[in-house]
From TrEMBL:
Keywords in alphabetical order: Disulfide bond, Secreted, Signal
Protein name: D7 protein
GO MF entry, a single one: odorant binding
Source organism of this protein record: Anopheles epiroticus
Listed GO CC annotations: extracellular space
Length: 315
């Protein structure tokens, strides 16, 4: 009797597992796990932020804020005040650029010097060197909490002294950003270029063809999904970002929340609904070409362009 019962349990377990595999359950991809070129080329340590990364952070944090248009106009002119909304905007950008680590409740001051050495015209000049020492002096130390006001209070004295340099090295000056984009070339997604197009040109694939394959190129998937921010630069799945992009496509957040493994993310999402995944990717990709409409007459984007042009026209 015990043997029969045991065999029944084993048989049921095998049948259940086969059913899950056949039905496309996102337990595990059947495609070989080969280290992709994107993973191989992705540094394990923090790298200076590109113009694409900074622009994404500035625009995303601004769009997600409930602040008034008047306040956002000040932000695009790099003039945040001490309001709660401005404090949270500064915290949001600092976290997105990995300049502030909420897990450790600390800024990472050496990254300001790394950024300057990568993008300042003369990182050894007497003009920029005080920033290095001030970052270590003013930004070092664990904060008591992660509140916006606490993070802002730590950062504000440093920003007040080095605003122009920070604007310069973090690609907030239109006089330099166009030159920087040109210098980086195919190593960064250009303004007006979608992320799929950037990845296709960099790694030599055609996304429409990869979508039709049972086992798409992992390099293609990882490049696009990192660009969409569905996979973070640390290699974890950003479920909140995925849920955000699937809004209106009729896929439950609880189902999307099952997809937690970066290596299997594409297959997990495709198993939920392949057609909807393709449609979401198409929509999100179109949004990546321009993070904001530079021809818009709406605020704060009109003021952002005017501010950029005013600096571009400086002697």
């Amino acid at each position: 009797m015990v043997t029969v019962a045991l065999e029944s349990v084993i048989t049921f377990g095998v049948v259940l597992l086969l059913a899950l595999v056949v039905s496309g359950s996102p337990l595990e991809t059947q495609c070989p796990l080969i280290r992709s070129a994107e993973t191989a080329n992705r540094p394990a340590v923090w790298q200076p932020r590109t113009p694409e990364q900074t622009l994404y952070a500035y625009v995303r944090c601004l769009n997600d804020s409930s602040a008034s248009i008047e306040m956002k106009i000040r932000w695009v002119m790099w003039q945040p005040d001490q309001s709660p909304e401005s404090q949270c905007y500064v915290k949001c950008v600092s976290e997105d650029l990995r300049l502030y680590d909420p897990a450790r409740r600390q800024f990472v001051p050496e990254r300001f010097e790394q950024q300057a050495r990568a993008f300042h015209d003369d990182p050894e000049s007497d003009d920029i060197r005080p920033l290095y020492g001030d970052a270590a002096r003013l930004l070092t130390g664990e904060l008591p909490d992660n509140e916006c006001a606490t993070v802002f209070a730590k950062y504000a004295p440093f920003y007040a002294v080095h605003q122009e340099h920070i604007l310069d090295i973090f690609h907030g000056d239109l006089r330099k950003i166009l030159v920087t984009y040109k210098r980086l070339g195919s190593r960064v997604k250009q303004i007006g270029q979608s992320f799929v197009d950037y990845c296709e040109k960099r790694y030599g694939f055609v996304w429409a063809e990869e979508e039709q394959r049972p086992c798409p190129n992992r390099t293609a998937i990882e490049c696009v999904f990192h660009g969409f921010r569905w996979i973070t630069e640390e290699g974890s799945v950003n479920v909140a970002e995925i849920i955000r992009d699937f809004e209106g496509f009729g896929v439950k957040a609880s189902e999307l929340g099952q997809c937690q493994v970066a290596d299997d993310l594409y297959w997990c999402l495709r198993a939920l609904n392949a057609d909807k995944l393709s449609a979401v990717i198409q929509q999100r990709n179109a949004q990546t070409a321009f993070y904001f409409d530079q021809s818009s007459e709406d605020e704060p984007w009109k003021s952002a362009v005017e501010f950029g042009n005013s600096r571009l026209n400086r002697a």
